[in-house]
């Protein structure tokens, strides 16, 4: 494999240095952090402006008006006028109130889209889901399609295709036959064996005959329905929360806490995944293994830390010297 281009190598080194510049904020606010922060904001805004021009303004305004026979009848002038009104405040404070109209239009349009989307995706879907039959059947491996089987534990699209090809010759008689399919490799067989389980594993969700009940799925559906009703009852303020109503509402509080905790845990895991990815970048794992010696991630990390530590130390010495000069009494 050929060596990394000089510009790519410098890009990796700069990325490592800027990473430690951001992390230096853990000590205190300093010029290295400010430099990385301003650089990130400036590049982001510059990229966004160029992207908006080529993706929005140019095709939907400039080209629409330039290509029209009667440009003064073109509807593209309406957003152009609204955009112009947003910049009036830079020219005249007296007419700055005109910028409220495009802002109000954007906010109202976005709010309408978001409310409709949330109502359909969250509220509507929750209502439809709560009205479903709580019964849950196991997936019949002898009749289900490959797409339906792909959602089972241990089933990849390749495993699902292997099951479909096998049952074309003869149907499955037990789940133990899955691990003996000739089309599977050892890793897929090991994955299927690991995912077996009568409660929440493959055995609980799949079968070789139709009509078998997924009891854990039924319990999950009932718990989901009762949890939703209990959470709604907790917010029912027209009656005092006591007796049976109070106990159900109390259970609704636990449901809400579990939901908030799961959401917070998912957010934390996402941030940890970003941190792990950044650590791998600092180690040089962002490039193929045979090119990692060129990046020298650990060495560049140590050099970056040394530069930042020395720079912050010099900056603080300069600040202390300036304070002493400011506090010193004037001569004479």
Q: Outline of this structure?
A:
With 332 residues, the chain is an all-alpha fold. Helix content is 66%, strand content 1%.
General description of the model:
There is one protein chain. With about 325 residues, the protein is mostly helical. It has four domains: about 5-75 and about 285-325, no CATH class; about 90-130; about 140-210, no CATH class; about 220-280. The chain is about 65% helix and about 0% strand. The protein has twelve helices and two strands, in the order H-H-H-H-E-H-H-H-H-E-H-H-H-H. Strands 1-2 form a two-stranded parallel sheet. Helix 3 crosses helix 4 (about 100-130) and helix 9 crosses helix 10. The mean pLDDT is about 85.
Q: Give the count of helical stretches.
A: 12
What's the SSE pattern? HHHHEHHHHEHHHH
Shape field: extended
Judged by helices, strands and strand pairing, the structural class is: mainly alpha
Task: Fill in the keyword field for this structure.
332 residues; mainly alpha; 4 domains; two-stranded parallel ribbon; 1% strand; extended
């Amino acid at each position: 494999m050929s060596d990394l281009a000089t510009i790519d190598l410098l890009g990796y080194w700069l990325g490592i240095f800027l990473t430690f510049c951001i992390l230096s904020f853990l000590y205190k606010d300093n010029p290295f952090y400010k430099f990385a922060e301003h650089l990130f904001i400036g590049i982001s805004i510059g990229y966004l402006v160029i992207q908006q021009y080529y993706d929005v303004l140019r095709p939907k305004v400039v080209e629409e008006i330039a290509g029209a026979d009667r440009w003064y009848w073109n509807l593209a002038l309406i957003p152009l006028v609204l955009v112009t009104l947003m910049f009036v405040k830079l020219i005249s404070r007296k007419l700055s109130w005109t910028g409220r109209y495009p802002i109000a239009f954007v906010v109202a349009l976005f709010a309408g889209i978001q409310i409709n989307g949330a109502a359909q995706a969250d509220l509507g879907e929750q209502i439809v889901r709560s009205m479903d039959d709580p019964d849950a059947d196991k997936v019949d491996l002898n009749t289900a399609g490959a797409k339906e089987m792909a959602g089972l534990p241990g089933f990849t699209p390749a495993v699902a295709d292997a099951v479909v090809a096998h049952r074309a010759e003869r149907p499955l008689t037990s789940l133990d036959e899955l691990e003996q399919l000739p089309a599977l490799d050892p890793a897929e067989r090991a994955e299927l064996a690991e995912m077996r389980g009568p409660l929440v594993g493959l055995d609980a969700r799949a079968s070789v005959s139709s009509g078998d009940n997924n009891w854990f799925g039924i319990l999950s559906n009932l718990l989901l329905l009762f949890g939703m009703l209990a959470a709604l009852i907790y917010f029912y303020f027209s009656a005092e929360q006591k007796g049976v109503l109070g106990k159900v509402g109390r259970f609704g509080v636990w449901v809400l806490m579990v939901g908030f905790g799961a959401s917070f845990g998912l957010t934390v895991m996402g941030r940890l995944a970003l941190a792990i990815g950044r650590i791998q970048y600092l180690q040089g794992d962002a490039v193929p293994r045979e090119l990692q010696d060129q990046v020298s991630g650990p060495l560049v990390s140590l050099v970056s830390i040394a530069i930042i530590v020395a720079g912050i130390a010099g900056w603080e010495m300069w600040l202390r010297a300036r304070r002493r000069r400011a506090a010193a009494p004037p001569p004479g």
